[in-house]
Design goal:
Bound molecules: nicotinamide-adenine-dinucleotide
Shape: globular
Oligomer: single chain
Number of strands: 8
Number of helices: 9
Distance between the termini: 58 Å
Strand content: 5-15%
């Protein structure tokens, strides 16, 4: 066990499985007491059981660490406040928040049901807000605190994930703004876009389809290779490092994290622009845009010519 986070107190949402579990175990191994939040449902957010959170708590305690379970649904506003209260009541303070809980309900946008949109936005985007909002009250008073949010490469655009990508890129905007709101109080907020072979990216259906369709088992081998080279535990070291004082200079940033690769994303930049002497009218836009603004662009999402 290390002591980089000795005497610190952390909350990790969705810590009963996958990436969150790995983060909770490493936080605890570095000396933090951890509140393990997990409602224990399916990958689509249905059902719920206590055992995923309980098992991680037991694992941490068995290794000599401190942990407590919380089974709340992070999509509920009250769960954010309850988690902060539980951390303070059980362990005396709060220093670290890892917003990680997530579900998937993929569908092409033209088939997506209202409930599929609402539930994904509620767990990811509102779930991040619910705990962040409650934690920032404490962090502002104590003039310290660290938040790590969980976005996704899907936020950059991914077929069949209108709900998920909207939530995940919303989390990047949330991260940048919380970093600004809280920076002057000594609080930091960063985000990761993880890669890990969990049930969320490799579903049972996907595995079965790969077994059925894969030419010579190639697709299945690809999935198995992704799982092997991207274990969920490999995400935790960067997340835990972001929580240490060694990362005091990192705020409002987002990183790709997985397997053996970590990358820092740029802030979006303007790459071309046009200007006019007065304000825009349609004829001027129609003349200048294709000549100067969009001349290098092609519609990359049309079907490829045979
Ligand atoms: N696995 C990847 O490659 C990958 C890629 C990009 C982003 N992510 C993100 O990483 C995070 C963790 O995903 P994972 O791959 O470990 O998935 P996972 O399904 O293995 O773990 C997610 C955990 O969150 C819990 N959870 C879900 N909704 C909850 C809620 N409303 N309240 C409390 N707990 C809840 C689940 O019970 C589960 O234990 C998610 O936000 C996911 O979107 C994962």
């Amino acid at each position: 066990m290390g002591d980089r986070l000795k005497d610190r107190v952390a909350i990790v949402t969705g810590a009963g499985r996958g990436i969150g579990r790995g983060e909770a175990l490493l936080l605890a191994a570095e000396g933090a007491a951890v509140v393990i939040n997990d409602f224990g449902g399916s990958a689509a957010g249905e059902g719920g059981e206590k055992s995923p959170a309980d098992e991680v708590v037991e694992e941490i305690k068995a290794a000599g660490g401190k942990a407590a379970a919380n089974y709340g649904n992070i999509a509920d506003y009250s769960t954010g406040e309850a988690l902060v209260q539980q951390a303070v009541d059980t362990f005396g303070r709060l220093d670290i928040v890892i917003n990680n809980a997530g579900i998937l309900r993929d569908r092409m946008v033209f088939n997506m049901a209202e409930d599929e949109w609402d539930s994904v936005l509620a767990v990811h985007l509102k779930g991040h807000f619910n705990l962040t909002r409650a934690a920032c009250v404490v962090f502002r008073q104590q003039r310290s605190g660290v938040i790590v949010n969980t976005s996704s490469e899907s936020g950059l655009g991914n077929m069949g994930q209108a709900n998920y990508s909207a939530a995940k890129e919303g989390i990047i905007g949330l991260t940048r703004t919380v970093a600004r709101d809280m920076g002057k109080y000594g609080v930091r907020c960063n985000a990761i876009r993880p890669r890990a072979g969990t049930r969320l990216v490799i579903s049972d259906q996907m595995r079965a389809a790969a077994e059925r369709e894969g030419s010579g088992g190639m697709q299945l081998k690809g999935l198995e290779m992704f799982e092997k080279t991207n274990p969920p535990e490999a995400v935790a070291p960067m997340v835990v490092w972001l929580c240490t004082d060694e990362a005091a200079h990192v705020n409002g940033r987002d990183f790709l994290v997985g397997g053996n690769h970590i990358a820092l994303y740029s802030l979006p930049e303007q790459i071309a622009s046009i200007k006019t002497d007065s304000t825009w009218d349609l004829d001027t836009v129609a003349k200048l845009a294709p000549e100067e603004l969009t001349k290098d662009l092609t519609n990359q999402f049309l079907p490829k010519e045979a």
